[in-house]
Design goal:
Elements (H helix, E strand, L loop, with lengths): L2 E2 L11 H12 L3 E2 L6 H17 L8 H13 L5 H13 L15 H6 L8 H13 L12 H13 L6 H15 L6 H17 L3 H9 L11 H17 L3 H8 L13 H17 L3 H12 L2 H4 L2 H17 L4 H13 L6 H9 L8 H13 L8 H25 L2 E3 H8 L3 H13 L6 E3 L4 E3 L6 H42 L1
Antiparallel strand pairs: 1-2, 3-5, 4-5
Helix pairs in contact: 2-3, 2-4, 2-7, 3-8, 8-9, 9-10, 10-11, 11-12, 11-13, 12-13, 13-14, 14-16, 16-18, 21-22
Amino acid sequence: MYISLTQGGLAPGCTRSHRVVGEAHARGTFHLLTQSADLLSTTRLLMTAVLMIRTNKGTDNTNMQLLCDTIQSYAKKHGQLKQATARMVQLAMLFLRAPEKSGFNLPGSLYAVIEKDSLSGQPASESMAVDEEDKQQGDEPDRSGKEDDRVLMLTERGRTIGDTGLSEDAKMQLMKTLQEVTEGKVFLEVERARVSRLLSDQLYAHGEVNQAADTLQELAVETFGSMDRREKVEFILEQMRLNVERSDFHRVNMLSRKIHTKFFEDEAQHDLKLLYYELMIKTGMHDDKPLDVCKYYREVRNTPRVQADEEKSRDALRHAIIFLVLAPFDPEQSDLMGRVEASEPLDTVPEYKSLLKCFTTPELMRWPGIEALFGPMLRALPVFSGSKEGEKRWKQLHTRVVEYNLQVIAKYYTKIRLCRLAQLLDLTADQAEEALADLVVKKTIHARIDRPAGLINFEPRMSDDEVLNQWSNDMSKLLQTVEKVSHLVEKEWAIHRAGLVVKANE
């Protein structure tokens, strides 16, 4: 393998080999005359071409158009080794990051890396000669993908250069080029995901939230076999965050199902766990699912790093209790109330313990008393702040108090007048009737309203089976009665006939 080089020039003092390489770099015409089957040589060629374009006129004057065109042409070349293309793309991606200090003792010039292997001491020409000798002997070319010292040196050179001298527009151009290069290539799926993430971050920094989110949505990283699991979760969480930013909560729910919560059991992943549940809390609050929000806050509180911070732990427990009492009544909500009351350290939040106890004790709650006792404390929280959503939740709390009182009344009363019911609920007659009708529709309680009489009957309605059983019992009792009456009639007739016979004998 060798490179055809054309006219150009370098600064005086450079060696002829430097001048030749510089001439090619000045015009940007790297023309591959022969294509080697040797993976390492091909990899070094592609990486060298990219690095020379990046550094020919200094890192501050990189010909970005030439660099992008070169990457595209080499990536599209028919029969190009996949591993070599991958290394070239990975090198180009280093130009999108901040420069790092190298752990290698790199030569002062890029051309020293090209001409000889400074670490092994084997000249490049000798290495190529060995490759040719192996080829003549019929040995199979090296396609293992292992890295030699020169590949590592080229990579380190790119890492030390980083994004030095590149403007935001230049980096944007390079990112879009890498997106095009990696599109549809399975062996570059991880690189494509990472470039898309960088491009999304760039768009988000410029306030283009929708474009940033759309850039990531097309990638299904959960199917990438070569990507680390933590990186997958980080990527999905970023997708969720951007969709929360643009209020696309339907897509957030879809993305959340791609993350298995067992992944968060590892303590090393608890930072991602907290981020995940933070996003899910926002989603649950938007979807008006207080019971789910309660569960999310409990998961947050059960995280060791949150438990280590007493204030954060208490705050999570407070919010769990608040959203638990805001949740509509159902068997799951009732069961969760019992478990929270039995297992959570409620003594650390005594005021909220009292609030929860009001909803677990079968006694009537007067709304004016609840508002006076807990109102100042709850109103100070962002959940019940003066915003539109805060006022909506405060009305929900009032509704839950009314619904709980109706369940208590239905438990102790069989019949009650509507005016008395309204008095117990601190509502008008119309409001009390509406609240009762809502619970009846939800099948939380059973009630029948006699509006002309103003009477409410809480006697439970019998099911079809119960009606049939009652009818069967009634029929059985009826038949038994008929049988008994028939027996008594026969007895009386027998006595009467016996009396007639005695009189006749006399």
